[in-house]
C-alpha cells in the first residue's frame, strides 16, 4: 500500500533534528576546540621534543646516559615498581570492601579514598615530613632502628603511594558495584572457596578495569612532582626522580638535558594514552560501567 | 532429600523479611514458592541454600541440621534469576566449574570433568554450543546452561530463583514444560520461586503461597485454587469477587436482604469471597444476591457482567453464559456455588 506523502511546500525550509546545530555553529565549535587543543596541548608537547633535539641526537642521548640522569630514571622505575603493585593490592581490597560489603561509615571511607585527589600534592608531602621528621614521634624511633624515611627512597615511595592511591580503587568501585555479588554467590554455591571465587570469578570480571586503573596509577606515579619534591631532599644521584631531575636541570639553564629527560616523561604519557585508548576501544562496554573518571 | 524449614525468622537491619516460617518438602517434590514481590519468597529460597542465615529457626536436610553449614557444604544447586553465568568462561567451563573447584581428594580428572559436562549439555539439549561464551547465547539457552551448571555438582536439592522471569512469553512456556520433564527424569527435590501463578499452578506438585513474610497456604494447585484459605490467597490466585456482608444468627445478610448462604462465624461484619465464574443464576427468590447490570462484555466463551449490588459499596463482577442477554440496567439474581466468608479485617 503506497501512501502519498504531502510534499513540503517551501523547499527553502530544511528540517533539522532538534539536537543538530546549524553548519556554521558546528564548524565554529570544532574550530575553537581544535585551536584550544593545538595551542595548549599539542604545541607544548611538540616543543618538548624540539627543545630536546635542538643540539642534535648526540647531545640528547648524552643527557639521558649521564650518571645522574640514569640514577633518576632508575629511581623513578623503582618507585613505580613498588608503589603501583602495592596500590593495586590496596585498591582491590578497598574496592572489594566498599562494593561488596555493607557497614557503618562506608560513605566516609569512600570519601576518604578521594582525599589524595582533593588535597594539594605539596600538603601530601608535608604530612610525611611531619610524621617522619626528626622532631616527630616516629622519626627518631625509626632512625634508631636504622631506617631512614625522609629524604630517602622509602619516603618517596610513601608519598607516591599516597598520591596515586585513588586510581585503582576509584576505577574498580563503580565496576564492582555494577556487577554485584551474584557471580560470587554462584561460585560459592557451586562449592568454590573464597580464594577460588576471587581468582576464577571476581578477578576475571574486573581485569580490564583493573588494568586501566593500574595504567593511570603508573603514569601518575612516574610523573608525580609536588609530594615527592617535599620528601625527597633533592640529593643528586640518590633521591632525585625524573620530574625532580628535570627541574634541577632546568634551573641550571641546562635546557637540552632538561627537555631530553622531560621527553621521556612525555613519551610515557603518549604510550599511556595509546594503551588507554586501545583498552577503551576493545573493552569499552566493561569499562563504561566504571565511569569514575 | 527431605527439606524441613522450622520456625525460621529473618530480619535485615531489624526489618523483618520472614516471620516464623515452617515448611516441609518431601524428597523428589517440585515446590513453588508463589507470592508478590516483597513476600519473602526469595529470602526463603536463599535461606534454604545457605546464602543467608536465619535470625532464628533452623533448616534441616533430611535429619541433618543444615543451618550450621556454609553454602559450599550444603551442596545445593542454585539457579539465579539472571543466571549469573561466568561471562569469561565458555559454556562447558561454566558447567564444569563446580567440579573443577573441588578439593584434590574428590576432584575428577579433567577429562572426566569434560565428559560429564558434555553429558549434561547433551541432557539440556545444548550439545554443539560447548565453545560459546554466555554473551553468544539466547536467554533460554543461558537458562539451560545455568541449570546444567547447577546439576553438575550432583546437588542434594535444586533451587531456582524466578527461573523464567527474564524470558519472553513463548520461550517461557516451552521451558516450563521442559523443566517439568527434567524434574520427572532426575527426581531432584526442587524448589522454585515465582510471582506468576500460572507457572506455579502448572508446574508444581505443591504451591506455597506467601505474603508479607508469612506462608498463607500450602497445598496442591487444586487445593490453593479451589479452596483458598485466606482473603489474600483468594485475591492473589485466580480471579475473585468480594462483597462486604454481615453475619447474623449463622446466615449472611446484605443490608436487609438474606443471601441464602450460611456461615459459622460469630455475628458481625464479614467479607464474602467467590470466583466470578462459579455462580448460579436464580430466578427471583428472596434469598440471593441481587444486582443491576452496569456493564457487560464478552470474554472468550463467557459473558462478564459488572453489577451494582444494592447495599454494597463496590461493584463486583460475575461470569455468566454468553447467550444471556444481560442488558444494561436489567436485574440479575444469583448465588455463588462455592464461597468463603472471612471476618472483616
UniProtKB/TrEMBL annotation, chain A:
The record's principal subcellular location, in a coarse class, is membrane
Q: How does it sit in the membrane?
A: Multi-pass membrane protein
Q: Which Gene Ontology MF annotations are present?
A: ABC-type sulfate transporter activity
Recorded GO cellular component terms are: plasma membrane
What is the superkingdom listed in this entry's lineage? Bacteria
Q: Which SUPFAM superfamilies match?
A: MetI-like
The answer, when asked if Membrane is one of the entry's keywords, is yes
What residues form the membrane-spanning segments?
27-50, 71-99, 119-142, 149-169, 253-275
Q: Where in the cell is it found?
A: Cell inner membrane
- Record-linked PROSITE patterns: ABC_TM1
Keywords, alphabetical: Cell inner membrane, Cell membrane, Membrane, Sulfate transport, Transmembrane, Transmembrane helix, Transport
Summarizing the function annotation, the protein's role is: Part of the ABC transporter complex CysAWTP (TC 3.A.1.6.1) involved in sulfate/thiosulfate import. Probably responsible for the translocation of the substrate across the membrane.
Tell me the protein's name: Sulfate transport system permease protein CysW
Quaternary organization: The complex is composed of two ATP-binding proteins (CysA), two transmembrane proteins (CysT and CysW) and a solute-binding protein (CysP).
Xref: NCBIfam families: 3a0106s02, permease_CysW
The chain positions of domain ABC transmembrane type-1 read: 73-276
- Read off the Gene3D superfamilies from this record: MetI-like
Q: Which Pfam families match?
A: BPD_transp_1 (PF00528)
TrEMBL record, chain B:
Provide the ABC transporter domain boundaries: 3-237
Among the Pfam families in the record, one is ABC_tran
User: Which stretches are transmembrane?
Assistant: none
Q: Which domain of life is it from?
A: Bacteria
> InterPro entries this protein is in?
AAA+_ATPase, ABC_SmlMolc_Importer, ABC_transporter-like_ATP-bd, ABC_transporter-like_CS, Mo/tungstate-bd_C_term_dom, P-loop_NTPase, Sulph_transpt1, TOBE-like
Q: Does the keyword Transport apply?
A: yes
Q: Which GO terms describe its cellular component?
A: ATP-binding cassette (ABC) transporter complex
Give GO MF terms, alphabetically. Answer: ABC-type sulfate transporter activity; ATP binding; ATP hydrolysis activity
The UniProt keywords, alphabetically, are:
ATP-binding, Cell membrane, Membrane, Nucleotide-binding, Sulfate transport, Translocase, Transport
* CDD domains on file: ABC_CysA_sulfate_importer
**Similarity annotation:** Belongs to the ABC transporter superfamily.
* Protein name as it appears in the record: Sulfate ABC transporter ATP-binding protein
Give the classification, highest ranks: Bacteria, Pseudomonadati, Pseudomonadota, Alphaproteobacteria, Hyphomicrobiales
Amino acid at each position: 500500500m503506497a501512501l502519498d506523502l504531502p510534499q513540503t511546500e517551501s523547499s527553502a525550509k530544511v528540517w533539522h533534528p532538534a539536537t543538530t546545530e546549524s553548519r556554521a555553529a558546528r564548524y565554529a565549535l570544532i574550530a575553537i576546540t581544535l585551536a584550544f587543543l593545538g595551542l595548549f596541548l599539542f604545541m607544548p608537547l611538540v616543543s618538548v621534543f624540539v627543545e630536546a633535539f635542538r643540539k642534535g641526537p648526540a647531545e640528547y642521548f648524552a643527557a639521558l646516559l649521564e650518571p645522574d640522569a640514569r640514577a633518576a630514571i632508575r629511581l623513578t622505575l623503582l618507585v613505580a615498581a613498588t608503589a603501583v603493585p602495592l596500590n593495586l593490592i590496596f585498591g582491590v581490597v578497598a574496592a572489594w570492601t566498599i562494593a561488596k560489603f555493607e557497614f557503618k561509615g562506608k560513605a566516609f571511607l569512600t570519601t576518604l579514598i578521594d582525599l589524595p585527589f582533593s588535597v594539594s600534592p605539596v600538603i601530601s608531602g608535608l604530612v610525611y615530613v611531619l610524621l617522619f621528621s626528626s622532631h616527630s614521634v616516629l622519626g627518631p624511633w625509626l632512625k634508631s632502628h636504622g631506617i631512614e624515611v625522609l629524604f630517602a627512597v622509602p619516603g618517596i615511595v610513601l608519598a607516591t603511594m599516597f598520591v596515586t592511591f585513588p586510581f585503582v580503587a576509584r576505577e574498580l568501585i563503580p565496576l564492582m558495584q555494577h556487577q554485584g555479588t551474584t557471580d560470587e554467590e554462584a561460585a560459592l554455591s557451586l562449592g568454590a572457596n573464597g580464594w577460588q571465587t576471587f581468582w576464577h570469578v571476581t578477578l576475571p570480571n574486573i581485569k580490564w578495569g583493573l588494568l586501566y586503573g593500574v595504567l593511570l596509577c603508573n603514569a601518575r606515579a612516574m610523573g608525580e612532582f609536588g609530594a615527592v619534591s617535599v620528601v625527597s631532599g633533592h640529593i643528586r644521584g640518590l633521591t632525585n626522580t625524573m620530574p625532580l631531575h628535570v627541574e634541577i636541570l632546568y634551573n641550571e639553564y641546562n635546557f637540552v638535558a632538561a627537555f631530553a629527560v622531560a621527553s621521556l616523561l612525555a613519551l610515557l604519557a603518549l604510550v599511556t594514552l595509546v594503551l588507554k585508548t586501545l583498552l577503551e576501544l576493545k573493552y569499552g562496554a566493561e569499562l563504561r560501567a566504571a565511569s569514575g573518571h | 532429600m527431605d527439606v524441613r524449614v522450622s520456625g525460621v525468622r529473618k530480619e535485615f537491619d531489624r526489618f523483618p523479611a520472614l516471620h516464623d516460617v515452617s515448611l516441609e518438602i518431601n524428597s523428589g517434590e517440585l515446590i513453588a514458592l508463589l507470592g508478590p514481590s516483597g513476600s519473602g519468597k526469595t529470602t526463603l529460597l536463599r535461606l534454604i541454600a545457605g546464602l543467608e542465615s536465619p535470625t532464628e529457626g533452623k533448616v534441616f536436610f533430611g535429619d541433618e541440621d543444615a543451618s550450621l553449614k556454609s553454602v559450599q557444604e550444603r551442596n545445593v544447586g542454585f539457579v539465579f534469576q539472571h543466571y549469573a553465568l561466568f561471562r569469561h568462561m565458555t559454556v562447558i567451563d561454566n558447567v564444569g566449574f563446580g567440579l573443577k573447584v573441588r578439593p584434590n581428594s574428590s576432584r575428577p580428572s579433567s577429562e572426566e570433568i569434560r565428559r560429564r559436562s558434555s553429558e549434561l549439555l547433551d541432557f539440556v539439549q545444548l550439545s554443539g554450543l560447548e565453545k560459546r561464551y554466555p554473551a553468544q547465547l539466547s536467554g533460554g539457552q543461558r537458562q539451560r546452561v545455568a541449570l546444567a551448571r547447577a546439576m553438575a555438582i550432583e546437588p542434594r536439592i535444586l533451587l531456582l530463583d524466578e527461573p523464567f522471569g527474564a524470558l519472553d512469553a513463548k520461550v517461557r512456556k516451552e521451558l516450563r514444560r521442559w523443566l517439568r520433564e527434567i524434574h520427572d527424569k532426575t527426581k531432584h527435590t526442587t524448589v522454585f520461586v515465582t510471582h506468576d501463578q500460572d507457572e506455579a499452578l502448572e508446574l508444581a506438585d505443591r504451591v506455597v503461597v506467601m505474603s508479607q513474610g508469612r506462608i498463607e497456604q500450602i497445598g496442591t494447585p487444586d487445593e490453593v485454587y479451589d479452596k483458598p484459605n485466606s482473603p489474600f490467597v483468594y485475591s492473589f490466585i485466580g480471579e475473585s469477587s468480594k462483597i462486604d456482608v454481615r453475619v447474623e444468627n449463622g446466615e449472611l445478610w446484605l443490608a436487609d436482604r438474606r443471601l441464602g448462604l450460611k456461615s459459622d462465624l460469630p455475628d458481625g461484619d464479614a467479607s464474602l469471597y467467590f470466583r466470578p465464574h462459579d455462580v448460579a443464576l436464580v430466578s427471583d427468590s428472596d434469598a440471593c444476591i441481587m444486582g443491576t447490570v452496569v456493564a457487560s462484555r464478552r470474554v472468550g466463551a463467557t459473558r462478564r457482567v459488572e453489577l451494582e449490588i444494592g447495599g454494597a459499596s463496590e461493584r463486583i463482577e460475575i461470569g455468566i453464559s454468553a447467550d444471556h442477554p444481560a442488558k444494561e440496567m436489567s436485574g440479575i439474581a444469583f448465588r455463588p456455588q462455592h464461597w468463603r466468608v472471612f471476618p472483616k479485617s
